[in-house]
Amino acid sequence: MILDKNIIAEHNDQLLADHKRRFDFLAADIPNVEAVLDKLVAFNIAIPSWALGTGGTRFGRFSGGGEPRSLEEKIDDVGLLHALNRSSNSISLHIPWDIPGNTAAIIEHAKQHGLHFDAVNSNTFQDQPNQALSYKHGSLHHTDKGVRQLAIDHNIEVIKYGEALGSKALSVWLADGSSFPGQINMRNAFNNTHESLQAIYDALPEDWKVLIEYKPYEPYFYSTTIGDWGQSYLLASKLGKKATTLVDLGHHLPNTNIEQIVALLLSEGKLGGFHFNDSKYGDDDLTTGSINPYKLFLIFNELVEGLDAKGINHATGLSWMIDESHNIKDPLEDLLMAVEAIKISYAQALIVDTPALKAAQAENDVVVAEGLLQHAYRTDVRALVAEARLRAGAALNPVKLYRDAAVRSTLIGERGANTVATGL
Ligand SMILES: [Mn+2]
């Protein structure tokens, strides 16, 4: 399904008068409004290929119908999202779930939707059919050199697929860990992981990055070999300048101060990628901004501050991606909501009165400093984000247009009600 430009234009015409009233009211209070709009237009968030179908839990999976049956259809779905919000111009592939058959044709297909390929993701947390050795007890950290080599070879294969598609980064998330005290030698596990990652690092093209993701628990529940940002940072530092840390918002213990982690990693030049989602308890993979939007804003505040301090382009300096599991919402609607929440938090961070904040911090004026952040957070910037969409040629209200244009029922008509996308 392709959304006709005229449908978007008609939708915007209907909503334009109300939008303009709200935008003009808001813009009158934002001195650098044009600069903020330019940054909002430029800011895109990659969509992972595994988030386009219904997710599941270990208890069940309830498919919504019309799910993409192939990599081409996954690209079509990201194309739909991008047409609706002009904020998702890339797709992040998971290997082996989305191995491209004809690479040139896949690139051309993506190009027709205005898309390119973001970081490629390896998978050493599952055994594939007919796999010679098992990842049951880990991959890059394994006691058996043969298993480690299998996992290294897989990651190098993923790099090759990524190179062919024009990707510039490899994301590595390891399930490696232990569930019981005494199960593993933690020092050996870490050193094996370092040695294995070194072999992968050595195979990276010069202009690539490896993004090392951490997670405190799950699927194992006693130790995870790359369990926190310190362990990821340690590995990234040992490996070299192409290695960086990836922060997934759901991969922290409750109440962790993620904004402080972000600030320090940026300061050290070691923040490479970001996975957006939200959670109440653990790695819940809920819609970004659905549970704690203030936390998301505070993280964006540190991101903007840290990127500006280093002179890094907000849109291109880091690898931005959504990493959620859509269990009960339509995945495409969920992704539209997530992108909206990300852009709202980003816009709020962009309107913080930075000179006043710096002055208040220098004076140790706690009340004024906190008040400046709260003022930005409590500003309703939705019209600003909508204006950026309008200027980019997208829909003023993407979810409304998605419903009005009956996208899901059209997809069910095209693909069937019982299709199941590959993924989690
Ligand atoms: Mn992640």
Keywords:
Sugar isomerase; 15 helices; 424 residues; three-stranded parallel sheet; binds manganese (II) ion; 48% helix
Describe this structure in words.
Helix 1 (5-27) packs across helix 13 (382-392), helix 5 (145-165) runs parallel beside helix 6 and helix 11 (354-362) runs antiparallel to helix 12. This protein is α/β, with parallel strands linked by helices. It has a single domain, classed as TIM Barrel (Alpha-Beta Barrel), CATH 3.20.20.150. The chain is built from 15 helices and 11 strands. The mean pLDDT is 97. The structure holds manganese (II) ion (MN). GO terms for molecular function: isomerase activity. Keywords: Isomerase, Manganese, Metal-binding. This is Sugar isomerase.
Question: What's the structural blueprint in terms of helices and strands?
Answer:
Blueprint: H1 5-27, H2 33-42, E1 47-48, H3 71-85, E2 90-92, H4 103-112, E3 116-117, E4 120-121, H5 145-165, E5 169-172, E6 177-178, H6 186-202, E7 209-213, E8 223-224, H7 229-239, E9 243-248, H8 258-267, E10 271-276, H9 293-310, E11 319-322, H10 331-350, H11 354-362, H12 366-377, H13 382-392, H14 398-404, H15 407-415
Helix pairs in contact: 1-13, 2-13, 3-10, 5-6, 8-9, 9-10, 11-12
Bound molecules: manganese (II) ion (MN).
